[in-house]
Amino acid sequence: MPQLGLLPRKAWAALLSQILWSPYTACTRAVSSHSQVAEAVLTSQLNPNQEKSDFIIKTPKGTRDLSPQQMVVREKILGMVVSCFKRHGAKGLDTPAFELKDFDIAGQFDPMIPDAECLKIMCEILSGLQLGDFLIKVNDRRILDGMFAVCGVPESKFRAICSSLDKLDKMSWKDVRHEMVTKKSLAPEVADRIGDYVQRHGGVSLVEQLFQDSRLSQNKQVLEGLRDLKLLFEYLTLFGIAEKISFDLSLARGLDYYTGVIYEAVFLQTPNQAGEESLRMGSVAAGGRYDGLVGMFDPKGHRVPCVGLSIGVERIFSIVEQRMKVFGEKVRTTETQVFVATPQKNFLQERLKLIAELWDAGIKAELLYKNNPKLLTQLHYCENMGIPLVVIIGEQEMKEGIIKLRSVASKEEVTIKREHLVAEIQKRLSDS
Amino acid sequence: MPQLGLLPRKAWAALLSQILWSPYTACTRAVSSHSQVAEAVLTSQLNPNQEKSDFIIKTPKGTRDLSPQQMVVREKILGMVVSCFKRHGAKGLDTPAFELKDFDIAGQFDPMIPDAECLKIMCEILSGLQLGDFLIKVNDRRILDGMFAVCGVPESKFRAICSSLDKLDKMSWKDVRHEMVTKKSLAPEVADRIGDYVQRHGGVSLVEQLFQDSRLSQNKQVLEGLRDLKLLFEYLTLFGIAEKISFDLSLARGLDYYTGVIYEAVFLQTPNQAGEESLRMGSVAAGGRYDGLVGMFDPKGHRVPCVGLSIGVERIFSIVEQRMKVFGEKVRTTETQVFVATPQKNFLQERLKLIAELWDAGIKAELLYKNNPKLLTQLHYCENMGIPLVVIIGEQEMKEGIIKLRSVASKEEVTIKREHLVAEIQKRLSDS
Fold first, then answer.
1. How confident is the model over A313-366, as pLDDT tens digits?
2. Does ipTM come in above 0.85?
3. Which of A89, A110, A362 sits opposite B87 (nearest CB)?
4. Which strand ranges, in their side-by-side order, compose the sheet holding B365-366?
5. In chain B, which residue's Cα lies nearest the Cα of A90?
6. Using a CB-CB distance cutoff of 8 angstroms, which residues of chain A are in contact with residue B334?
7. Which chain B residue lies closest to A27 (C-alpha atoms)?
8. Sign (positive or negative) of CA dihedral B263, B264, B270, B271
9. 3-state secondary structure of B414
10. Predicted confidence (pLDDT) per residue in A258-297, tens digit
């Protein structure tokens, strides 16, 4: 793999540790896409048309300057991804996902279980994003290679034909076929045989159908791949996500280190959304099995089973951003829950005592750094910052041992006993 | 400030944005020490003996390789710091803490309110760390300068004498005095006058005492500083933290861009801990008022009020790490709450269905990627990984519609109805 020569071995190992997920030991380990490097790698990885050198050069993409609003959105997306990884037993963020030592316990897991969990994780993350319906295309490198072989593609052309295939999500089969025949010099009848397969997609029934295919069923690699896919679909059904997964013979993925199952997720445009041309959708998550890759860095050359899962955080971030623009959504840049206000002059002391009580109860609270702020200024501040609750304290309230609690959105005010304030705020916050 | 010349203006502005906290607009903004740059700057900043060039060069300190265990500890510390910042209305992580535009609304806040909040935040963070008792030393740059002046220190020697003073937490007054007189050529009687002041510390009563001091009370700068400190202590009392703060005339802080109040936090060693020599304590948080610094980068040269607060995350991390070594504490590297186990062969399907139910309920769950794992292997895995609960499913349980829930620590097992499983787990997790 001469492309890898661009990076020193150590850098590649570090890169791998960011993008791979090894089910190698018994525990599940997932890689978070938290660091900027990982994000950028992930994003590039999702663009199969990029050269590998680009794949590396693009890594500092995440360093672009972000506004506080953008930071909030980004943190929310990352938070969701990370919490899903943790739900599946992931080790801490930025943790190398695997170590090269111990790699003699290889094969300690049974087939397709971690692969199925990868797809489950992907489904949980994509559902959690609430960006609409999605589909995960699945294929297998062995089925792809075997299909090329039985169709009559010379082995030397596998990679070139693969990269043409990868364009099927943007181009029609007619155009892809044209490229294969004219640019890649593939015999037209071979291209037609490929076309017959790669335009099919479906669930486990397609797997069964291909088992019966007279040509494919002669190929050992294809049979291995189909057997694994059948098992995978069994597990996906148990996980309740089979209907989100489409076996798609056109899915090729640009990176040639995949050795088994490969997958790629796309958001589906609803008829409504199709009108909003500004919302560009695309592949937002991807992964697969890379059993050969890690072995290249192992001094003993062991073949190390690995499944990888990458979330294109930067791309998801762009989609969310565009969508927010289209729908005019606002983002809060702070998490402040309560604002401490007063209509009275010389009430700083009471405000400070009160806010300390809120902070000590773990409530996120703010006040204006002024001795005598105007009430309207304080209320405007809450509206601008999206702070939901205002506590209002004044002389009359002090005398009576009460306090006013105001909802910024509804402008409703209730009067409550001073000693019930913290409990009432906590109740309201947990209800909302 | 020729030292700043080492960095381009933009880099400095970025650095500042990491370490400063501007109470400039009405909202409170805090700087997280989340990024590696910030951490490193913070750590160096806490070592007053370092030159400024070091201060910059040391920035990539946070990039050292961390084990999964170390990552967990680091994330916990950072999480605590960040959640405290958010409680005080901080904007998103890695967000520039201030922008140079708008800076014409300067002076929109009243004195000492944000300074008091900085100290409150520091107290909350240091208490939250649960590393024992702590103290925050407070002084004021104006009091320090004024004191030097009334003691007879030539203005050209202020910085040199300041840096000697900074050593008072490691050296005796006798040794510091010796350095001042022999190395810094200070007149012995001037050093003695300084010694009379810098060995004093206390609360607001010391402020009152110095107001009466015949020499100090003649100095305008000192009076300004004392007036502010008096107001600060009033607010600290309202915040309920006055007893954690010590007005300490020896606190000088190495960085000379402070213009007003300065503070520095140390953990206090209890008699017990003093025996554990391996636990090195030191300054873990610091800050102050930097009204002049930002103006240097403002084209119009506006004087911009700023208060800064830095948490020495790397140092705190070291303390926690050492302490964990001493006490032999273990760290979990995953957050998995429940393990799905079986004593039975060929039970993978049931395990997968069950674990998907747990994941979908938001429960962090794992299983072994084996068709037929041994029960003992599964239970050992839970012990090793610190997973608290095990769900055990077998043929008998299936038939009766029940399931076993086992506490890994106590080895107690209860039998519950299958349909109550998720609720029971959620109840146990929220109780613990």
1. 778 888 888 888 888 878 887 889 999 999 999 999 999 999 999 999 999 999
2. no
3. A362
4. B365-366, B338-341, B389-392, B402-407, B413-417
5. B334
6. 27, 86, 89-91
7. B368
8. negative
9. strand
10. 889 999 999 987 555 555 443 446 788 888 887 765 555 5
